[in-house]
């Protein structure tokens, strides 16, 4: 009698070079994508999710998405049937990964265990996924043309510190209108949205090995200490510790956890 597998694939590891992209596609299965090093960007028509090292992204079946690597990224993937959805989500999300789930992912994506051991590991993975926390690493992209113009301007230069009123003059809309639209379309105020954009940009730069001071300036923070404070408050770790875990020069196998106090 054939065995029913909870996780549908065997070992699934894929190294990605800095800047390497996986073009937009979708699957008829659910995926749990886990970067052991580097950082993975997951983009859909609705927004962008940044997946730091030792965190994971749940990508539901039938959701078109693309990947982009920031830094040398080792992507590991668990694949589940579309009917197996322990998170009960129909949208991508970034998840906390505790020590046990991390070890299970490593075991299932490094080698193909013997059937009884594999079945146990798969069940543990499902049990842990039912209890994991969602993390706020999502940036919804506005649909309104005027907001999209402003969003592209800031994405190209996160250090741009113009007010919404000043940006609105270039987009042809009043500040009050834009403020209302930002909240309606992204669920955030404009300052919150810009802060999230800057944090995502910072995550990407740190994963490529850029120094903390350089990243602070590039992302529009007045001082490195201000950047460190905002980063720590948002992610529970420092930019330096995150960089040490995310940045893996070619030919090394650095896999430190930047969030040991959170596990």
UniProtKB/TrEMBL annotation:
<keyword id="KW-0805">Transcription regulation</keyword>
<dbReference type="InterPro" id="IPR018060">
    <property type="entry name" value="HTH_AraC"/>
</dbReference>
<keyword id="KW-0238">DNA-binding</keyword>
<dbReference type="InterPro" id="IPR018062">
    <property type="entry name" value="HTH_AraC-typ_CS"/>
</dbReference>
<protein>
    <recommendedName>
        <fullName>HTH-type transcriptional regulator RipA</fullName>
    </recommendedName>
</protein>
<dbReference type="Pfam" id="PF12833">
    <property type="entry name" value="HTH_18"/>
</dbReference>
<dbReference type="InterPro" id="IPR011051">
    <property type="entry name" value="RmlC_Cupin_sf"/>
</dbReference>
<dbReference type="Pfam" id="PF07883">
    <property type="entry name" value="Cupin_2"/>
</dbReference>
<keyword id="KW-0678">Repressor</keyword>
<keyword id="KW-0804">Transcription</keyword>
<dbReference type="InterPro" id="IPR020449">
    <property type="entry name" value="Tscrpt_reg_AraC-type_HTH"/>
</dbReference>
<dbReference type="InterPro" id="IPR013096">
    <property type="entry name" value="Cupin_2"/>
</dbReference>
<dbReference type="GO" id="GO:0043565">
    <property type="term" value="F:sequence-specific DNA binding"/>
</dbReference>
<dbReference type="GO" id="GO:0003700">
    <property type="term" value="F:DNA-binding transcription factor activity"/>
</dbReference>
<feature type="domain" description="HTH araC/xylS-type">
    <location>
        <begin position="148"/>
        <end position="245"/>
    </location>
</feature>
<dbReference type="InterPro" id="IPR009057">
    <property type="entry name" value="Homeodomain-like_sf"/>
</dbReference>
<dbReference type="InterPro" id="IPR014710">
    <property type="entry name" value="RmlC-like_jellyroll"/>
</dbReference>
């Amino acid at each position: 009698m054939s065995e029913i597998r909870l996780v549908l694939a065997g070992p699934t590891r894929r190294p990605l070079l800095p800047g390497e992209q996986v073009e937009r596609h979708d699957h008829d299965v659910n995926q749990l994508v886990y970067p052991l090093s580097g950082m993975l960007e997951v983009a859909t028509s609705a927004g962008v999710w940044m997946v730091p090292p030792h965190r994971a992204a749940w990508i539901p079946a039938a959701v078109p998405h693309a990947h982009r690597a920031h830094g040398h990224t080792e992507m590991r993937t668990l694949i589940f049937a579309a009917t197996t959805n322990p998170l009960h989500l129909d949208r991508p999300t970034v998840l906390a990964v505790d020590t046990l789930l991390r070890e299970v992912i490593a075991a299932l994506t490094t080698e193909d265990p013997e059937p009884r051991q594999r079945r146990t590991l798969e069940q543990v993975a499902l049990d842990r996924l039912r209890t994991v926390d969602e993390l706020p690493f999502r940036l919804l992209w506005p649909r309104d043309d005027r907001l999209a113009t402003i969003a592209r301007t800031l994405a190209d230069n996160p250090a741009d510190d113009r007010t919404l009123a000043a940006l609105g003059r270039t987009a042809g809309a009043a500040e009050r209108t834009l403020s209302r639209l930002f909240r309606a379309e992204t669920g955030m105020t404009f300052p919150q949205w810009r802060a999230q954009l800057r944090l995502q940009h910072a995550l990407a730069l740190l994963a490529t090995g850029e120094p903390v001071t350089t990243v602070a300036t590039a992302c529009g923070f007045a001082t490195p200490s201000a950047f460190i404070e905002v980063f720590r408050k948002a992610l529970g770790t420092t930019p330096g510790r995150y960089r040490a875990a995310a940045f893996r020069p070619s030919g090394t196998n650095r896999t430190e956890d930047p969030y040991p106090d959170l596990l």
